[in-house]
UniProtKB/TrEMBL annotation:
The lineage of its organism: Bacteria, Pseudomonadati, Bacteroidota, Chitinophagia, Chitinophagales. Belongs to the outer membrane factor (OMF) (TC 1.B.17) family. Gene3D superfamilies: Outer membrane efflux proteins (OEP). It is found in: Cell outer membrane. This is Outer membrane protein TolC. Residues 1-20 form the signal peptide.
């Protein structure tokens, strides 16, 4: 009984689920929550932030607990001259300097007092964390652009499917009229075969449009992180916005901050390598307790002796050709290279912006011209249909006007597709809030 009720409920809700249509904003919001690449980038942000905190933690004091137990199956000895205890010259006396069992436990602590390299590493970690966050933000903008472009592509593909199906139905009507003329003996078999070929071409175009729509839907689902098996229907919107190109500003480029931070990271890596010239001063302290014995239970029977030390450690680099000369020089060259790459990035992105701006204007004009061609082609098809209804069959004219209408629609849809591609790319290159 429960299973039947569940089935009835599913069937009742199915029409509402099928009727649900996704707007562009809902597709974008879904992609920002479910795209796996973006989620992985967000995890990388957290990892980079953790690395930054780890670099800062290197400046804090370190405290370690120590413990050790040893068994000397051969007790070490120290040899002393026999003259020290009144023996003849040239003789030696071996003296054991340990017991079979010995152990110690205690604490060790240390802290860096002067360490330029560690401070530079902290600054490098901050820049790397910012760079990772900027790269994630850049990918987020790229993802939004791809979702937009896929959304518009799916709209155009769906419109193309509707048009090709309508053309197939329209020509099927014309073919029936031609077949009727053939049945009356007014045209020959050649004209009928030519008409059948045109009908087959229109039906094949409709099938290809159906496949293209399915591919476009899969592409949109992929960018959204949407389950491929679930249905996805988008709203119908065939309107085009008049092209309005924003004023170019390099700071609004999607990867500007990430590319700029790349040069800063390269500069900081050079400073980290150069900091190896500086001395390192650290303080250390330790406290431990020692015990000795001749049996395993010595730690219960023997006495424990306290040992404590406090001191400073100074390390001054004097000679290391690789770390003190070659590595800093290499890092400086890499930094200078990153500056040139950043300048090249700005130049190529501005070039792309200007090209997209010109191509957007051209696509808009192509859309307007294609609309006029469609109007003329539709008039020609209607005039040809009127002739056909009167019994006047001219296959050359019918072929030409139907092909003209089909090509006009194809040009119009291709121009719209190009318009949306240039529109989304142009606004991607100037990602203004």
């Amino acid at each position: 009984m429960l299973q039947k009720l569940t089935t009835v409920l599913i069937l009742a809700l199915a029409p509402f689920a099928a009727a649900a249509q996704w707007s562009l904003d809902s597709c974008l919001q879904y992609a920002l929550r479910h795209n796996h690449q973006l989620l992985a980038a967000l995890e990388s942000n957290q990892a980079a932030a953790r690395e930054e905190r780890a670099a800062r933690a290197a400046l804090l004091p370190t405290i370690n607990a120590t413990g050790q137990m040893d068994y000397n199956y051969k007790i070490p000895i120290q040899v002393f001259p026999g003259e020290l205890v009144g023996q003849p010259p040239g003789t030696y006396i071996p003296v054991r300097i340990s017991t079979p069992w010995l152990a110690n436990y205690g604490l060790e602590a240390g802290v860096s007092l002067v360490d330029a390299g560690s401070w530079q590493s902290v600054k490098l970690g901050v820049l790397q964390s910012q760079q990772q966050a900027a790269q994630t933000a850049s990918f987020k903008v790229l993802l939004e652009r791809n979702v937009r472009q896929s959304f518009y592509d799916m709209q155009v593909r769906r419109q193309k499917l509707h048009i090709t199906q309508e053309q197939a139905r329209s020509y099927a009507h014309m073919h029936r009229l031609i077949a009727a003329q053939f049945g009356k003996g007014l045209i020959d078999k050649i004209a009928l075969n030519q008409s059948q070929t045109l009908l087959t071409n229109r039906q094949e175009a409709a099938q290809q449009a159906q496949t293209a729509l399915q591919v476009a839907r899969l592409t949109l689902k992929g960018w959204m992180g949407y389950p491929f098996r679930d249905s996805l229907q988008i709203v119908t919107d065939t309107s085009l916005e008049a092209p309005q190109a924003p004023v170019f500003d390099p700071q609004y480029l999607p990867g500007f901050e990430a590319e700029q931070l790349k040069t800063q990271v390269a500069e900081r890596e050079w400073k980290v390598a150069r900091s190896r010239w500086w001395p390192v001063l650290s303080a250390s302290a330790s406290y431990s307790r020692l015990a000795f014995g001749s049996s395993f239970d010595f730690w219960q029977q023997g006495d424990w002796y306290d040992v404590g030390t406090v001191g400073l450690r100074l390390r001054i680099p004097l000679l290391s050709a690789r770390e003190l000369f070659h590595e800093p020089a290499r890092r400086k060259l890499l930094w200078q290279r990153s500056l040139q790459e950043f300048a090249h990035y700005r130049q190529t992105q501005e070039q792309s912006y200007r090209q997209e701006k010109l191509q957007l204007q051209d696509a808009w004009q192509s859309v307007q011209a294609a609309r006029e061609k469609i109007m003329l082609a539709e008039q020609n098809v209607q005039l040809s249909l009127h002739k056909l209804e009167k019994g006047l069959v001219n296959m050359i004219e019918i072929r030409q006007v139907t092909e003209d209408l089909y090509q006009a629609h194809q040009d119009h849809l291709q121009a719209k597709l190009g318009y949306w591609q240039h529109y989304t790319t142009l606004h991607y290159l100037q990602n203004r809030p």
